[in-house]
Every structure is written in C-alpha cells, then in structure tokens.
Design a protein that fits this description.
Blueprint: H1 4-14, H2 19-23, H3 29-36, H4 44-54, H5 58-62, H6 67-81, H7 85-96, H8 104-119, H9 126-138, H10 142-158, H11 162-178, H12 185-201, H13 205-222, H14 228-241, H15 245-261, H16 265-283, H17 286-304, H18 310-322, H19 326-333, H20 345-364, H21 368-382, H22 388-402
Helix pairs in contact: 6-8, 7-8, 8-9, 8-10, 9-10, 10-11, 11-12, 12-13, 13-14, 14-15, 14-16, 15-16, 16-17, 16-18, 17-18, 18-19, 18-20, 19-20, 20-21, 20-22, 21-22
Length: 404
C-alpha cells in the first residue's frame, strides 16, 4: 500500500516545496519529516492543513492505494520504455474496462493505456485520457494532467490534424494562465518543441525558426538545457533548406556540443547522418557524405543496436549515386522503408525522394521504362506532403525522364 507519508512526500516534491515551506507555521520541519517517514501520524487539523497546502482533499491522503496497481504501473512503465507497446496493450486492455478505484495509480494506468493505443495506431483513446485527467486534476497534479492531454497531440498528429494539435497547445497554455498556475520549465520547453514541430509540418518555416530561437533564449535564460541538441539539430536542417552553409555549420556545432554535454550517444550518432545529407545536397562531396553515413551505420550497431532505418539507406544510396556507382546505389535505395515511428511530413517527403533517385539510377543504366515508373510513383506520393524542397525535386526528375 502507498502510505500517508509517501503520498505527502510525493505531492510535496511534485509541487517543488521544501519540508520547511510545507510545514510553514503549522508544524515543525522535524514533525513533517517524521510524518513523511511514517514515524508519526498527523492530527486531523494538521492533515487538513497539509492537504490545503498540497492542493488536494484530505480524503485522498487517507485513501489506500492497492499495492497491486502500484506494482502494475511500475511494470508497464518499464515495458513502455522498452518499446513493448503491444504487450502493455494486451495486459491493460481487460483491466481498464473493469471498475477501478479513483486513485492516482488508476489514472496512471489509463494514461499508459491511452499512450500505447496511440503508439500502435489505435486513436480511440479520448475516454481514457479524460478519465485520467479528471483524477489528476482532482488532486491538483497538473503536470501529469498536461502530459496526459499531450497524448491527444500524438493521436491528432498521426492523423495529420495539425491545426487541431496547435489548438491543443494553445488551450493548455490558456488553462495554466486562466487558473494562475505556474508551468514548470521542462513542460514549457516541451510545448515549444511540439509547437515548432507543428509549424514545420504546416510549412511555416520562418515561424518554426522563430519558435526554436525563442526556446533557446528561454533555456539559456533559465539555465535549463533540456533538448538543446535537438533544437540546434532542427535549426541546422532548416539551414540546408535555404542553402545557408554558415548557419548549418554553426547550428551543427552547437548541437554536437550539447549532445556531448548530455552524453547523448543517439544524438551524436544522428549528426553523422545529417552531415551526410548536407554533403549529398549542398557540397556534392559524395565521398565525405558516404563516410559520414557509414559511420552512422556502424555506430548504430556498436553503440545503440537498433536496426538501420530508411534514412540510412537513402543517404548511402544518394552518395553512391553521386559517385556514379548506380548498381550499388540501387541496392541501397531499394531498402528504403518508412520506419514505424516516422510520421512527420518532412521526414516522409525526404524518404519519398528515394523513388526519384532510383529513377535516376535506372535512367543512367538505360532502363527508361523502370525509370519512368519510379519517377511517377515518387511524384504522386509526394502530393500528400507540404514539402516544396522535395516536391520540386521529384517533379523535375519526372519531367527530365519524360523527355527521354
């Protein structure tokens, strides 16, 4: 069972209160410490005082939470971190349909269930999101409530409802302002991140850049360096769109610095792929591009161990194409698939260009029929994405092959 003292300590830390701040003038810090450690029991007057300071009902502090639910929440969280979404879904599906007590661990199970349903492509999650939110807000746990609301963001984004996603972010900010709540710094950065990704999906590149720069300024001002490497990486990618070599090099170096600072091996490895893209696209130094891409592939296996993805095969194929090694390029480009975790239209559009590069390879190998087929397929698929920098390439490739 979750004890009274454990609940008080958890809520105190959630609200970033010290023991002295929570104790106030009602009780001593020493007495509060004994209560939190289960060595003393508060009077009803003290209990109501603590509940009021913690923003919850006294009844919540007194209610017992089944140990089985607490253990299950911990197990499911580990499964989610291990990307075992289907397993979590199968375990939780019968449980969340039973009558469960209105406790925090029940809310967390609803939250976990909604998350894994979304990740597995089932977007009928609003009922469970709302159930979790009601419980979290009953106990004034607004951060957990906000995290739960953002599951709707993933669901809407994957269904390409980008404007609805933007409205959700604005509504969360408006709610905090309306209730005079203070949003923690990490959540503020998260919302900036989601907004930047949305603006990129909508094709509002200048607004996206402005949000990214605003977030970097906000982070530096508050000395919080969460996701800094990712913000700089997106800025460097955007610089390539407008052929801003200086901007690309500056932001890439910054991304490297923060990835090293945070010991983020995945981020450092991903930068090799970005450098491959840069040399394939801007400098046309295909040997250098190929070296970076192959380094990316080796480090994925040695350090991180996931399978190589479509971006790896695309950039390797492009480098080989640039070197005139058309058969080898086709071998790589034919392995380009869309990873299950990829839903952003920019990423999808980039991967779609693999068809145009296959078409160019076939053109050089004098297989005009297959070249035309690949070019048409890529051009038609590109219509689903708002990505002018890629759609113009597929269109030009098709027009060139049609003239043969």
């Amino acid at each position: 069972m979750t004890t009274l003292g454990e609940k008080i300590r958890a809520l105190r830390k959630e609200k970033k209160l010290t023991q002295s701040e929570l104790a106030g003038t009602e009780l001593t810090k020493s007495m509060l410490s004994q209560i939190e450690n289960g060595k003393a029991t508060p009077s009803m007057k003290t209990l109501h005082y603590l509940a009021d300071k913690l923003g919850c009902d006294a009844s919540f502090l007194l209610e017992e939470d089944a140990n089985e639910l607490a253990t299950l929440v911990q197990e499911m969280e580990q499964h989610i971190q291990d990307l075992r979404f289907k397993e979590v879904y199968e375990i939780l599906h019968p449980i969340v349909h039973d009558a469960l007590p209105s406790t925090l661990n029940t809310a967390r199970l609803y939250k976990q269930y909604a998350k894994v349903k979304t990740y597995t492509g089932n977007y009928d999650v609003q009922t469970y999101i709302e159930k979790a939110i009601i419980i979290f807000e009953k106990y004034a746990l607004y951060r957990e409530s906000t995290e739960t609301k953002l599951i709707s963001y993933y669901s809407l984004f994957r269904q390409k409802q980008y404007n609805e996603c933007l409205q959700l972010i604005h509504s969360i900010r408006d709610e905090y302002n309306g209730k005079h709540l203070e949003m923690d710094l990490i959540m503020q950065i998260e919302l900036f991140w989601y907004e930047a990704i949305l603006l990129l999906a909508l094709g509002n590149y200048e607004e996206c850049k402005a949000i990214l720069l605003q977030t970097l300024h906000f982070s530096k001002k508050n000395q919080v360096y969460y996701k800094m490497d990712e913000f700089y990486r997106i800025l460097s990618f955007q610089a390539i769109f407008v052929k801003d070599t200086e901007g690309y090099l500056h932001n890439l170096e910054k991304s490297k610095q923060f990835a090293i600072f945070t010991e983020n091996n995945l981020s450092l490895t991903t930068l090799h792929l970005l450098e491959g893209y840069f040399h394939n696209t801007i400098t046309k130094q295909y040997e250098i591009a190929l070296s970076h891409v192959e380094t990316y592939g080796r480090e994925l296996i040695i350090k991180l161990e996931p399978e190589k993805n479509g971006f790896y095969y695309l950039e390797k194929g492009k480098a080989l194409y640039g070197l005139g090694r058309y058969h080898e390029a086709l071998h790589e480009l034919n392995q380009v698939t869309i990873p299950t975790y990829t839903h952003h239209p920019i990423d999808l559009a980039l991967l779609t260009t693999a068809g145009s590069f296959r078409a160019l390879c076939y053109m050089h190998l004098e297989n005009t029929e297959q070249a035309l087929y690949e070019a048409k397929q890529a051009h038609n698929a590109m219509r689903d994405y708002h990505a002018p920098m890629f759609s113009s390439f597929t269109e030009e490739t098709l027009q060139m092959i049609q003239k043969l």
